[in-house]
C-alpha cells in the first residue's frame, strides 16, 4: 500500500509542487509549497491519530494533506477541484486502489472555503490542518511596505498552534498576533469563512472548535 513517503519520492508530484509555488510567487500569494504541504500532511495525520482513527485512515489523511494544493500548478482559481482530479490520476497511476484514491480526491476537492466542507474524516482533518497554518513564514513578499491585507495578516502571526484534545473533544487554534502590524479585527475580516469551515470540520469529527488570539478566546 502506498504511504506518504512514496508520494514524496514521486518526481511528478515534486515537479508539480515546484511549478505551483513558482506561479503563486509570481502572482503574490502566500507560500503553498513544501513547507505548507508538509505541515498540513503531518497535522492532518496527527488529528486523526489523536482521535483514535485507524492507521490507514491516518496515512490517507497525510497523503491528502501533502497533495491538497497541487492544483495551484494550473491556476489558483478552482485549485481544489483541479488538484483533486490530478491527485486521483497520480495515485491510481502509482497503484493505489480506486476507493482510497477517491477518498483523497474527495478530501482535496472539498478543502477550499469557497466551495467545500467536511464530508469525511479525511476531509475534516485536512481542513483543520490546512486552515490552521497561518504564520509570517508563509509571506513571500519581502517588501513590507507593499503588503496587502493577506500579507499583513499572515505576517502579524508570530506563533500558531492547533491543539487537539480528544478527552475534552476540542480542537483549539492558538495564535499570537502582533497587533501593531495587524489588528485582530483584520484577522477576522480575512479568515472568518475559514474559521467557520474549521468549526464544521471539528464538529464532523465530534469536537468543538475554539479560537484563542493573544490568550483571549474569540470562538
Large-scale geometry: globular
| Series of H and E elements | HHHHHHHHEEHEE
Spatial separation of the terminal alpha carbons: 40 Å
Helix content: 40-55%
Strand order of the largest sheet: 1-2-3-4
Number of domains: 1
CATH class: Mainly Alpha
Number of strands: 4
Based on helices, strands and strand pairing, what is the structural class? alpha+beta
Radius of gyration, in Å, reads 17 Å
**Residue runs with pLDDT of under 50 for 5 or more positions:** none
Mean residue pLDDT: 91
By CATH, the architecture is named Orthogonal Bundle
Looking at this structure, what is the CATH superfamily? Hypothetical protein af1432
Indicate the CATH topology: Hypothetical protein af1432
> What about the largest sheet?
4 strands, mixed
What proportion strand? Answer: 5-15%
Count the DSSP helices.
Answer: 9
Amino acid at each position: 500500500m502506498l504511504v506518504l513517503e512514496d508520494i514524496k519520492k514521486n518526481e511528478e508530484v515534486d515537479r508539480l509542487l515546484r511549478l505551483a509555488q513558482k506561479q503563486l510567487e509570481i502572482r503574490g500569494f502566500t507560500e503553498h509549497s513544501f513547507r505548507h504541504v508538509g505541515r498540513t500532511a503531518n497535522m492532518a495525520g496527527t488529528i486523526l491519530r489523536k482521535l483514535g482513527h485507524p492507521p490507514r485512515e491516518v496515512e490517507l489523511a497525510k497523503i491528502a494533506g501533502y497533495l491538497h494544493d497541487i492544483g495551484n500548478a494550473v491556476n489558483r482559481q478552482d485549485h481544489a477541484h483541479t488538484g483533486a482530479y490530478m491527485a486521483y490520476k497520480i495515485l491510481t497511476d502509482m497503484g493505489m486502489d480506486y476507493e482510497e484514491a477517491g477518498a483523497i480526491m474527495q478530501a482535496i476537492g472539498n478543502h477550499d472555503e469557497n466551495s467545500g466542507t467536511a464530508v469525511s474524516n479525511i476531509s475534516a482533518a485536512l481542513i483543520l490542518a490546512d486552515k490552521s497554518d497561518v504564520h509570517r513564514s508563509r509571506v513571500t513578499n519581502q517588501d513590507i511596505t507593499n503588503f496587502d491585507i493577506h500579507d499583513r495578516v499572515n505576517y502579524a502571526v508570530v506563533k500558531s498552534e492547533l491543539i487537539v484534545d480528544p478527552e475534552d473533544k476540542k480542537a483549539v487554534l492558538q495564535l499570537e498576533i502582533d497587533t501593531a502590524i495587524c489588528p485582530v479585527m483584520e484577522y477576522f475580516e480575512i479568515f472568518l469563512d475559514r474559521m467557520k469551515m474549521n468549526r464544521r470540520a471539528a464538529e464532523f469529527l465530534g469536537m468543538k472548535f475554539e479560537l484563542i488570539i493573544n490568550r483571549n478566546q474569540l470562538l
